[in-house]
Every structure is written in C-alpha cells, then in structure tokens.
Target: GTP-binding protein HSR1
Amino acid sequence: MPTNLPPEYFEVERRYKAASSPQEKISTLEELIATIPKHKGTDHLRADLRRKLSKLKDAAQASKKKGRQTSSFQIDREGAGRVALVGCPNVGKSSLLTNLTNAKPKVDQAPFTTWVPTPGMMLIENIQVQLIDTPPLSREYMEPELRELIRGADLMIILLDLQDYPIQQLEDSVEILKSHRIEVSCTENEPASDSSQDLHRPLIVVNKHDDWELDKEFGALCELYENECSFISMSTKTGRNVHQFKQAVYEALKIVRIYSKRPGKEPNLEAPFVMKKGGTVEEFAGQVHKDFLVKLKTARLWGSGAFDGQQVSRDYVLQDGDVVELVV
Model:
C-alpha cells in the first residue's frame, strides 16, 4: 500500500540521517514520526520508526546510568564543515570563538587558559560551520587525541597576533605542528614529504588588526611573505573584517550550497544542501533521498551556468547557489 509521504518527511529524514549525537537523533526522529500521515499505508513505517526511537532512548538512558567519562577530545561533527583553530598562546582563539559562535570558552590574558578543545557553531549566511578552539601549541607535548582532532578537521586556521611578533608566531606554529607530525604548508607549491599522511594548507588569519592605524604593520607582513602565502586580517575586539573572514573560511572549505525545488513550487532558500565542489546532479539526488538516486528521470536547473529551467544530465557539475528540480 502506498505511503504518500509529504515533502517535509524527506527533509526531516535528511537531518535525521545527518545527526551525529544521540540526543539530536532522538529529537529529529520524533519530528520525523510527526510528519507521517496516519493511515493504513503508513502503519508499518510508523511502527518501525517508533521501535528505533525506543532503542535510541534506552541506549541514551543506559549511557547516563553507566556514567562513563568520554574524552573531551571526542567532539561530534556538526554543520557544513569542521575548522580547527590553532596558534600560540594569547593570539585570540577563544575570543574569536566567543564572538562568532554560541560557545562560551574561558577568555583570559594569561597564557594557556584553554586546556581542552571547545566547539562552537559559526553562521555563514544560511549554513553553520563548526569552529573548534584548541589548546595553545606547545613544543614540549601535544595530546595524541588533539593531534588527531587537528588532522581530521576539514580546515586548519593558524591564528596570529598582529601586535605581538606575528612573523615569529607563524614560524613557531608551523615548526611545532611539524614536530608533532602534522604536515603543514603555507604555500600552494610545496609538496608533501613521503612520510606525511596528509598535507594541510592552513588559512592564516591575522587577529588584532583593530583599526587603520595598524594597516602599515599588516602591509609589511604581507609584503614580507609576498608570493609565498597570503593572509586574512580581522579583529575579534572591534569586529573588523569579520564578514571577509567568514567568506574566506567558506571558500577554503571548498563547498557549495545547492537548493532543492519541487515541480511547480518555489525553492527553499533557507535550508540548502551542502556538497563538496565538483559534486554532480546524481550525487545531489542521492543526498536528497536514496530513492531519487535510483528513480531519477530528469533534472532541471536554475543557476549561473544555465538558463532558467534548463534540463541537465546526471553528471552535470553543480555550482554554488544552483537550484535543482528533480523529477522521478
């Protein structure tokens, strides 16, 4: 018997499948059940989802009773990308996290205030990106779990303090990261060594560029590293260049936002699907729902690379901001 599920079901199902924490899975599953119309055709589906919800709640309750301590370095992934903030003491990582996310880390002038990583969600237009404030870099020791956390991030940001020897900070940061087997290159043409697992191309952000009086210092830094690496400047104190910082993060993550459109309806421009650059219509269809991937007949596109409503093939490469109508 057909279920005749509403479009809201598939949107909530997407969020349920993307949920990482048990509580998030429970809440989205409850929301998913609420979207299902009550008739004989959906009895089996609703019963199956209720069983899953019951198991999730039992597992969450059992975990609470055991009272096991989880590592502070085990942070659930959220949002459209994970960004690790690294740097020397007092460069402003915690201030950046406090001002641009919902997190409340301890902010202090004393060095080494941050002892464990702290996550927060930063809004970039209509998507969320996860920022993680990490403990200051130290030559002496780095927790193995911290090393893996930094390595596993989609983007590394090396934060510098414009008002406190940024050149030395950059050199120290790169040297310390490499000493802890985190391969870093600040230039696009430097190859990875044979012993490295992954070569990280960090975004280098110069903090505390509070006003125009510091333009000369920032210009001198850029001139010194001309043709080697580029810098983004900002101020967590005054909010200067925050928009440029967010755009630089978005571009460095190499992602695109794609919007879905139902036939005869306006697209939902508030809840984009996020894909890596180079993603195709076929990959988008699979991200919307697995049934679309199998049953897809045609796709129509509205975007900068096509005329409105143009029919495109499965292997068409999508661009940021494209609107796609899938017909099954």
The mean pLDDT is 86.
